[in-house]
């Protein structure tokens, strides 16, 4: 067994078939480049799906991991630890939050947020204040509760009966929201930019109206910033581009720069509704994850990194537009910062995955966000030369795509 060399076919033999991975198996990375088992190089425009915000093997993250790894990895949640407290203070100092709950993933953060909102509604004294408003095409995780809150039936329809009391409305439709919200609503959950749903940016007036109506009806407003958070849009969190402040914010993905960690941020007023034993997690807030996340946070939360996101975003947009002048595949580019979606023209409908696959053949990794959108979520510090080289390779993929018979 020591001589065993895994291959792509082993995935089909050994693994539960909930993914369909590409043929190459990356074995090492550096910055925004990856190498497979055959030492072939790829430009990484995926970044672990907006996770590897500092690329691969960033020395600050690696050093934090090694340093903490020689001290303390895990404790029972009957104890606290210094890295968790330090990270919590950083999050509080640089957001609206006053209380933090650590977990291991975005789905867990959203699960905690929705449970908290349900308890707040129960404690309010208002009968039946347990309804949740979410939005069509949203994505909030894969637990039964969060997949039910997500507005994409393809992810939930095979797992009925689903948790009840969740209404899905059209995104960016304030009139529909006004008609739906009542005093029985305990929570509204939304993404400032819908990620998996197609890189759809929330209108400012929509967010403002939702915020005002949540206040009026005493509903907890939850911003799912799992994909938009930690500098992805050019601000530490996307809500900071606006005047709108949520009651609860969930964060994960890039928070650990690739090391699993998630968090729910909220106010003291709401956070104190949870009491000892109401919720929990075995691994959440462990010293190893929090030490890495603390180091990643310090680097990302700087003008140099955040301003650089905007610069790199424009390089991507300019480069994609130039390619599109040649190949005329996309009808628009949407998103913000380094969360970008290229929307296919109608004649190429449902073929985004083909472009992604051709990109792999050309040595560049990209994503889809639904069948009609090619998505880019690269490292926030991706070198300019990697952007240019990656887009050159992506252009070769587009050439193959339009020339296919």
Automatic annotation (TrEMBL):
Cofactor binding, per record: Binds 1 pyridoxal phosphate per subunit.
EC class name: transferase
Pfam families found in the cross-reference section: Aminotran_3
MF (Gene Ontology): identical protein binding; N2-acetyl-L-ornithine:2-oxoglutarate 5-aminotransferase activity; pyridoxal phosphate binding
Residues engaged in binding pyridoxal 5'-phosphate: 106-107, 139, 224-227, 282
Swiss-Prot/TrEMBL cofactor(s): pyridoxal 5'-phosphate
Transmembrane helix is among the record's keywords: no
Modified residues (N6-(pyridoxal phosphate)lysine): 253
Location (main, coarse): cytoplasm
Enzyme Commission (EC) number: 2.6.1.11
Reaction(s) this enzyme catalyzes, per UniProt: N(2)-acetyl-L-ornithine + 2-oxoglutarate = N-acetyl-L-glutamate 5-semialdehyde + L-glutamate
GO cellular component: cytoplasm
GO biological process: L-arginine biosynthetic process
Misc. remarks from the entry: May also have succinyldiaminopimelate aminotransferase activity, thus carrying out the corresponding step in lysine biosynthesis.
UniProt similarity note: Belongs to the class-III pyridoxal-phosphate-dependent aminotransferase family. ArgD subfamily.
Protein name in UniProt: Acetylornithine aminotransferase
